[in-house]
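Notes from the pairing session

We agreed to fold both candidates in a single pass and log them together. This is the raw record for the first candidate, unedited. Please don't reformat it; downstream parsing expects exactly this layout.

Candidate A
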Amino acid sequence: MVEEFKDIIAGLEQRIHLYKSKLHDLQKKREKVEDEAKTIAKYLELAETLYRVEVEKAKPVQPSHPLATESRDQSDTILLEKTKYSGLSVPQAAYLLLKESVEALHAKNICQKLLEGGVHLRGKTPITSVAISLSRDKRFKRVAPNTFKIIEETAILPDKFPTKEN
């Protein structure tokens, strides 16, 4: 009878291990699909923006009409904003962003603006990834928790110039 219980327990342990393994595999697949869905959503948004820009360009333009040039300028601005940081690394894009910013920005705001500008962020916690990336780069200074600014580039002069001693 003890042997039967041991066999039952061993069988249940195998099932538990099998179910845990399957659950882990499915969770990995779900994460991959979610990442792909986010990427496709960004591409869709960009394609729709490009589409609107091209449709605006294809409309007959009356040069004397002031709204015609304004509409085209707005389309170009929208397109530029969507691809502003495309192809750049997180530190490169963040440097450009903070250089334009008057004040220090929190990693959440930086992350949001980088995503809007076309930077592809991977990982489960993109805000943390941005914060870590910037804290490791010497061009950035952390001024508060997860809040960064760029370090001003100033010439550093020594207090005393070296003198030749005998």
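Candidate B (folded immediately after A)
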Amino acid sequence: MSSNATFTPSPDKDTESVKRPSERMEKIPIYTTSIAWAAGRSSIFTYLSYFGVVIGASPLEQSILTSVRNLGSNIFQSIWGWLADLRGRKLVMTIGLATLALTIFLTPFVTNPFELVLISIIMTSLGFSFIPAWIAFLGDYASEEKRASFIGFINSIGTLSSLFVILLLGWWMDSTPFPFPTEIAIYAESKPVFFIPFITGAIIFTIALFSELFLKEKYTARNRAVIRDELHLSTRNLIDRNAPFKRLLPINSFFKFCMSMAWPIFPFVTLRVAHTWLEVSILWAVFNLPRGLGQSFGGIIADRFGKKIVIILSRFGYAIVPFGYAVGLVTGNVWFLLLVNIPGGFAFGAEDTAISSYSLDCSTVDTRARYYSILLTFEGVFAFTGSLFAGLLMEILLSMLHITDKDPGFENVLMILLLLITALRIIGAVFHKYIYSNPLDFELEKQLGTF
């Protein structure tokens, strides 16, 4: 489970003076790739759901869009993780970033929800191959004792830097003559404004792709014996041989089901409460600022006090968000959405760092990408189910109440679902008390082959 290299300078002063400039040069493309990846990702997730609403997606179609995006971004992660462990991290990262640059460029030319679903499938299933390869790449650079701190620090740099991109895009979109889509009647007039975030995102992903080419990979492709004995293990074998990971997988998957139910609902709420694109951007900036802090400080806390406590507390923090959106919807006050995004963002960043490093602690150097990709694959399946279930539930409630998403009563349906999701997130968070405190305690069993 030991890593190949770290950023820790050598205690030998003569060697240290030689290595420091080289190490600093190694970090530059890592920082650049992290910043560009986060900024490009923000251009997708900040505006893609709103774009779906504007081109006429119904609640069910919006849930399908969210579902396939979640499924696509995770269902093939096991394959990408296997390829990253087999052929190296950079190859998979290149595939992902190139796909993201192309598909986000084509997105504003989409004219209906069906086309958006198709391009989202390609974007996420191929483009988000970057994630397991990137996490494994960072894991190769850090020791087990400092892994969460290092991953959190690098990712927080990208997240915090993306704030400027989000706010700039919001200001730029508001400065155009295209109206903010507060009413269905002006949706068609609002559509051209989405060229701004999506074309910008394509440029940013191209920068990330160029930067990624300069990354120095620490991982060495495995020899034939290792490929035969380790890299061809089935997903079920990898799960069964590791007790902490086997315990984490169903608990994490259920929570993702509860989490994802809210995702197709949030865009409808936001467009009913916000008044400008700058307000929407501020919502995401307020989320990403504590998220970046959560990634950094969450990693430090996880290394010092354990990853389990960070995961549990973070997931309780998630439950605050849908409740705040329900209050904001009732009051029509965007400040409630802003307020809950602060603990929600910090929880998201801290948990993301803790759970990714937790899965790396379950792995060996030759299985890092695959263990994390298995976690993402199961997340994708359950997130797909949760978002789709929320859409179907909305349609059932609307049918029972004899209203549509265009009627004022639709807001009552949204509020009922948000309160239900709040309760489910609390229940899902409670289950995390059953995960193991430290996967590294099982290292001896793993070395003896008893897994």
